[in-house]
Amino acid sequence: QVQPVESGGGLVQTGGSLRLSCAASGRTFSRYNTGWFRQAPGKEREFLAAITWSSGNTYYADSVKGRFTISRDNANTALYLQMNSLKPEDTAVYYCAAASSRVPTMSRYVDYWGKGTLVTVSS
Q: What is the distance between the alpha carbons of residues 28 and 77, in angstroms, rounded to a whole number?
């Protein structure tokens, strides 16, 4: 099994950028579709972006399309989320996710979760 480990969260001003990273602890992300979710206080966990391991096809939530970009390294050892034009409503804990069969566009498709990294966008 794979254990995602996120990093790169922090405090950023409105309009700023941040890049999140997710490492695959224990093994690589090969044969896992991977993605990013976030959860703001008092809200449900929300899908943001996903990428398939075989073809590299990407999927985005409408709320982040055009602002966030998901990518991975060629060795399938790391996943990234480049976040631009950040807004205060992007403040949340961001989670890396891996799924062995489905594309992780919904929480119930996810087999492995990271522990999350906090992103705070100040106004």
A: 5
Rounded percentage of the chain residues whose pLDDT exceeds 70: 100
**pLDDT exceeds cutoff 90 at 26:** no
Paired tokens of 100:
């062995």
Asked if 61 and 47 touch (Cβ cutoff 8 Å), the reply is: yes
Spatial separation of the C-alpha atoms in residues 67 and 53, rounded to whole Å: 22
Can you give the three-state secondary structure of 18-59, one letter per residue?
EEEEEEEECCCCCCCEEEEEEECCCCCCEEEEEECCCCCCEE
Residues 44 and 30: their CA atoms lie apart, in Å, by: 28
